[in-house]
Amino acid sequence: MASSPAIKPRSFGPAPSKQLQWRHQLVSRSSSGRNIRGLVTRRSSANENDGEKIAATEDLEARIAAGEFSQYRGSKREALVKPVRKLLASDQGGPGRFLAYALAKASRQWRRNAAERMPEAKGDVRIALMGEDPLFVVLYKLYRAYGRVFQLSFGPKSFVVISDPKALKHVLVDNADNYTKGLLGEILDFVMGDGLIPADGELWKMRRRTVVPAVHRKYVAAMTEMFSECALRGVDKLDASIGTDLPEKGSGKSTSLDMESFFSRLTLDVIGKAVFNYEFDALSKDDAVIDAVYTLLREAEYRSITLLPYWRIPGVSRLVPRQRRCEEALTLVNGTLNTLIADCKQMVEADDEKFMEEYLSKSDPSILRFLVASGDDVTSKVLRDDLMTLLIAGHETSAAVLTWTFYLLAQNPKVAAKMRAEIDAAMPDGPSALTTDDISNKLRYTTRVIYESMRLYPQPPVLLRRSIEEDMVDGYKVRSEADVFISVWNIHRSEEHWGKDVLDFNPDRFGPLEDPHPNEVNTGYRFVAFGAGKRKCLGDMFALYENVVTLSMLQRAFDFELVNPDEPVGMETGATIHTKGGLNMRVRRRKDSSGGNGTVTSDDDLLNQMKMGKWESVSEMGAKASEDSSGASATPTAAAAPAAAANAN
């Protein structure tokens, strides 16, 4: 500290005739999260009658050496050292003063070290993690208490939790080579082996070079027709559920079903055809292979949220019924994949010259056929691991996105009406095959609806990484071999980054429709639904087009409303975000789903009437839609009470 001109010292005796008044202000952390030294300001009053002339700096230095102004409470070590410093500082002529200064210097170093240690979530976190709230909701509550980067510890394990776009970019992009999939690879090893998602290092680079060409734009274009075919099958399935013996479409009859289960089966059919040209036909039947696939999906999710990996104990698979079922399911699915791989190899060898021509003509644009015909010298096990990875990742995420999109639309009738007007214009004669041009040019708002759904309900809500070497993230030290949770949920729901309306379902927030759709780069890494960096989801366009096609087809044919709109739809942690108890919706045919010209009050008409004040509330607008349902298309989404959308916290 720089010396100051001599001032009157503070008197420690009773009723002093002059007094040096000190005001000490300690700023424990600045806005950037760094510890800074306490700021000492002073004010003095002079007394001309007092003849004592003592240098105030001497007294000040002694008091600093004694630790009088060290109010830092973060270290037990400093708390123990402080009285020792005070005692040593009282030794005016001996070595005590020197030792007191040495301890003061050490204390400053301890504070600097402490500044590099990130905040740690306090209390018994285990109770919170094992409670009713899903993991990502617990992390959101802790984020609001401890900030954008903090440490979460329970038992012998500790995790770094990141909820900041810049810190995310550092881990996933700028210093991505220092981070592996870590914990995720350990969780999924039993089912994905050395597949693309859990793989790291050179193995990952090799598999990515092989798999990426299989999902290029021409492949996605070829798949879009298949998306339409599967979605039309879904339309037929729902139509059959309502009943085919009704007097006419739009009669108002409806059926109630769990749409989450429906989407799970529909997307399994899509991914089966896309990945290895296999007809699961899950919408229409149950069989052993389908049951085995679902057993593996549930087990992967179970292991992702279980703190004690007991399944790694030798012999457990034979003792625990759950693990026995998992082993049996894995054997069946692996056997099925091995058969498909062997058959595909025979077909490619027999007709190798026609492969590329057939691929582009869409006769069999499966990923399996492309990988086999690409000529890479890979074993059947490596192929099987890649296919299993694509099966699980592609199926779960799309089913979850569609589930929460339909939930949000049911809660937000104005958004649903605007979207359906666009869909009706794109398919004026009812549900029909869509192309990539249709999606790019005619369904831009519908595409934004999917993006906004993924913002509020990202799939997955948390990304996992593990550091290789020590690193600095947001000014904090991250040790080597540290497991990192990157909370996409927290970033996507941060008021700091998205504004006061962060929890509103608003597809217009991404700007004019002619602007590029949101991605990690043009949003400053605030939107990372598909990840970021070199390990970004390679099937992002596949998933997006699949979801847009399915959403458009179903919304063109049917009206959807929540069976119990006033009851919250709970969430459960898994590889993706699931509902508690399913998404139970009432499904009703639209009058004009085949291009009919009924006297229906359209979504746009209803909204325009509401703007003109004809309807005082959304409930009245929904009542009008229900009245029309006897001879026209109802708008049940408008009848649903507009509960707070997507805010489950």
TrEMBL record:
Heme binds at C537. GO terms for molecular function: beta-carotene 3-hydroxylase activity; heme binding; iron ion binding; oxidoreductase activity, acting on paired donors, with incorporation or reduction of molecular oxygen. Signal peptide: none annotated. GO terms for biological process: xanthophyll biosynthetic process. Residues 1-51, 587-649 are annotated as: Disordered. Its cofactor is heme. It comes from the Eukaryota. One of its GO terms (cellular component) is chloroplast. Keywords: Heme, Iron, Metal-binding, Monooxygenase, Oxidoreductase. Belongs to the cytochrome P450 family. This is Cytochrome P450. It comes from Pycnococcus provasolii.
